[in-house]
Amino acid sequence: MQFRNWSVFVAACAVALFTTVCEVVGQEAITDHQLVFAVKPLVEGNPELIQEQSAAGAGLKLWGYSVKSARTGSLGKGFTGVMVGNSPLTTKGTTTTTVYVVPLIFKIEGETFNPTVPDSNCLAGEVPLTVLKNSPMVVATHDFKVNGIDVGKTQYSDAFQRANFWMEVAKNGGTYHNELQYKFLPAITITPGTAHSTLFGNNGCISLYGGIEINWFDSLVKGTLIPRLRAKGVGPTNLAAFMIYNTTMYVQTPSQCCVAGYHGAFGSPVQTYSPFQFDTASAFGTGSEDTAIMAHEINEWQDDPLGTNATPAWGHVGQVTGCQGNLEVGDPLTGHDYPNVTLNGHVYHLQELAFFSWFFGAPSIGAGRVFSDKATFKAPAAACQ
User: Which of 266, 280, 290, 327 has CB 3.0 to 4.6 Å from 309, enough for a Cys bridge?
Assistant: First the structure.
């Protein structure tokens, strides 16, 4: 879902995209709200220059594609875009991109949400950050079988991308990998103040859930946190990811909640970044627990790093109640689980994702010749009115 300048929010409103008529209410339980995802497309950057900088090694490694739609209503129409890494259509071997993960400690109205200390309420004393480090998003030890095809022992993002273009990957010997090298930086403590934060009530293993205002937070990330992290290695060649523990984001007022995560891009060379919610309280159900939200955002960044990859219109599926026209692989299947993965004694949640072919039409070049990585989509997207 694309919130242009965060000007609208439709998750809690039965209205069309880009309209805001939400009822303003007082503080509520977090379970009264729907969880959605967002993208903030490239600002203050030149896409052509970004690709030139990528080719010269001065920016994020990107590959470009050009495709003609095979879908009814857009048959033969051409689309171009860029993705992270080297092309799975032509490349053998491995591309590696660094992802810097920054755990954020939020102090909101006397409550502290700290992912670096044991969680005795929801994780039986496990440390959330350690759980993340041992997850299939980070480590490459789980053997992923996607729609009956073994795509190898790897990270979920790499497994998805291999499955996403499997028919072409297999033609090239099956050696293509788009790996992410995760580096974890020291936690940063943030005290937003009551003007930019709130507490939601929650039933279950914790009684209170944090909330931060997304406009304020996005400005903080771009204007303060990322510049501060330059000395730690964060820069245009990598992704800056921000772990938000048992805290969600809202737009302008707490009643316009909740954004689980988003990815954004700014500048030339481009700096990409992605805050993601890490939920241990199952506040929105198991479909958004632990690494499910991270899986949504990291894979959307991988396939639409600038937030500008256009597609034929699709919609009325997943979190999208109207029509949407971008290559956000998680949005059509928001809330759909990929099969759980057990690693190091922990059961991890991941989200199912839509294949490239779902957006542009049959035949599918994805694993199993279907249109998503758990085969929920058996056919490409329908035309959207």
Answer: 327
Token couple for 363: 């035949």
What letter would DSSP give residue 154? E
Amino acid identity at 133: K
Closest listed residue to residue 249, CA positions, set 38, 28, 14: 38
Domain range annotation of the chain: 4-369
pTM of the predicted model, to two decimals?
0.93
Q: Which pair of tokens denotes residue 215?
A: 């406009």
What's the DSSP call for residue 126?
B
Q: 103 to each of 4, 82, 161, 183, how far by Cα in Å? A: 27, 28, 26, 11
Q: How far is CA 175 from CA 66, 158, 168, 249, in A?
A: 23, 12, 11, 39
Helix (H, G, I), strand (E, B) or coil at 78: strand
Please report, for residues 67, 102, 252, 342, 377, the alpha-carbon distance to residue 257 in angstroms, rounded to integers and kept in the order given: 36, 23, 9, 31, 28
In 3D, which of 278, 259, 293, 322 has the Cα closest to residue 39? 259
Helix (H) or strand (E) holding 161, with range, is helix 156-164
Is the pLDDT at 127 greater than 80, yes or no?
A: yes
